[in-house]
Amino acid sequence: MTTRIDKRFADLKHEGRAALVTFTMAGDPDYDTSLAIAKALPKAGADVIELGMPFTDPMADGPAIQAAGVRALKGGQDMKKTLSLVREFRKGDDATPIVLMGYYNPVYIYGVEKFLTSAKTAGVDGLIVVDLPPEEDEELCVPALRAGLNFIRLATPTTDDERLPAVLNNTSGFVYYVSITGITGAAAPDTGKVVGAVERIKRHTQLPVAVGFGVKSASHAQAIAEGSDGVVVGSALVDALRTTLDSNGKATGTTVKAVTDLVASLAAGVRAARKMTAE
Amino acid sequence: MRVTVQQPNSFRTGPDERGHFGIYGGRFVAETLMPLILALEKAYGEAKADPQFQKEMDAYLATYVGRPSPLYFAERLTAHCGGAKIYFKREELNHTGAHKVNNVLGQIMLAKRMGKTRIIAETGAGMHGVATATLCAKFGLPCIVYMGAIDVERQKPNVLRMKILGAEVRAVESGSRTLKDAMNEALRDWVTNVADTFYCIGTVAGPHPYPAMVRDFQCVIGRETRDQMQATEGRLPDSLIACIGGGSNAMGLFHPFLDERAIEIYGVEAAGHGLKSGKHAASVAGGKPGVLHGNRTYLLMNGDGQIDEAHSISAGLDYPGIGPEHAWLKDMGRVTFLSATDDEAVAAFQLCSKLEGIIPALEPAHALAKVLELAPQKPRGHLMVVNLSGRGDKDLDSVARYLERRS
């Protein structure tokens, strides 16, 4: 099975650069705006698109992404609309990988098999479900792999060498290294430590390793890109979106552009990175 | 169609090695926390098998908590109901005024044993927060308690108590600003401070091993009740009844009796403004199985899997879920679930105060409300035990405001 994710990372490896992985929340602050943002992301420089599936109780997320989820739910976003957003996106772009990211309960309530079929048909390539560790693989991970979707796992600073094989087993697409112990958007990671951690993970797997949590600026993205296969930016984008909303929380004329401008700047940072390790 | 449930040989063997009670329970947490939860499971297993740990805990339970708590014959309430003989298990007489301390003592001793130096907790009514602040003071550990901003407002005396005990109370402004959001925030703290922090969960919920561990620490309630009833009446009780939010006081009373199948067991959820109002906290009566806070269990939610806000006059029951073992016992038909509205709970709160000279917390007042319905239907020889899980001092403001609104 080769997904758009596998192909994209292979192509970028050939190009000799890291991927820019962007996270935005589906339905934030409304369906149409978030679809417009998604459609504009590849042109702005996003290589892989992560779309958040909003949830009332995002236990691993910091204030920025929590607020994005609240805005999306308030705007009427639900699982059906998130899947239809992907379907709409795919009409104009068959190459950019899309990863749905969120928590298990909305997927579980939608129905695992029904969700996987709808997601695959809509053009989803991978899933990141924060509250499904390898210990719960039978819930969604194994069925997702069977359905031809990548199941992307988070590895963290607490995932030691003893545990890494369990985390990497059944992981596909790429490995998402959470660079800090903490919630999304928290303190910026120490680049030196991140590079060491990526090297440690790479000793256990052939998969690309993307790094996220706390990446905010172009220079920061560049530094991370030099020691990894991908840089994930989420909270900073969601925050850029927030600052453009009017007093009622509605999108304005600058909302889409605020996000794409920041993506363009981050993409320039990622593209400026020299690969430290020749592979 | 009636579904026949395959009954297990024993109701007391769960959970399995992966933390499941039937389909419920499990370990639905972020990867960052997974190594911590595995370490906790291992450490708890070792402590449980260590006679010295048990011996130390028993000593503190006797001299610090004040156990055993009495089993009290509520004579005037019994006469009022005109049926079953009603006994109160007096958990409100424990140090800190509720059953919560039984569990916290065990967890803080375990935290010490694991070399953890910082304690975090979530709290709803504040009783678990107070118990945690108390034991952190006793053992000299810094303590941070997450509490929904709404609960901080309606449980002021407990906030003050925690502060006097040296704990830091952090008001949680996210989400519905009640217990579930306090738990989210505590999990966010834990995921950030993994090296030194022990998360002291207040109920029989959360990722494995918490539901089993908290249950084990609370089972002292049921074990004492067995002995005390044997000593007083020469036999075991005929029925048990307790309120259920997460369900730790109920599980502590029920678990040692689960395999005596003739004993009727009732759990009482908070029906708030009524089950049909949509404003309640009855996750079994009004919810369905889902995944939140580390476990699969009955949850209040909408059709999209978004968690609904719970509503109850009692902050301690104001949670949209229930412990996973309760969910399983419900499906097995071993525990009968009932619910009591705010109105019924306040009426029972007043009646118990006037008839017995005991001001109960609003949480066990929900159980008392159903005692008032069940006891009259039982023969005079029927022995009914209600878990009086907490004292009502903290609720005087809430009740006064409620009565003002009603008048």
Tags for this entry?
heterodimer, A: 279 residues, alpha/beta, TIM Barrel, 9-stranded parallel sheet, B: 407 residues, Rossmann fold, 2 domains, 6-stranded mixed sheet, 4-stranded antiparallel sheet, 16 helices, 14 strands, 43% helix, globular
Could you characterize what this model shows?
Chain A is of the alpha/beta class and 279 residues long. Chain A contains twelve helices and nine strands. The radius of gyration of chain A is 17 Å and the shape is globular. Chain B is α/β, with parallel strands linked by helices. Chain B has two domains: 20-61 and 99-214, Rossmann fold (3-Layer(aba) Sandwich); 66-97 and 219-406, Rossmann fold, CATH 3.40.50.1100. In chain B, 43% of the residues lie in helices and 17% in strands. Chain B contains 16 helices and 14 strands. The model of chain B has no long low-confidence stretch (mean pLDDT 96). The A-B interface holds A 54-60, 62-63, 66, 73, 78-79, 103-110, 130-136, 153-160, 163, 167, 178, 181-183, 186 and B 18, 26-36, 174-175, 180-181, 184, 187-188, 191-195, 290-294, 299, 301, 303-307.
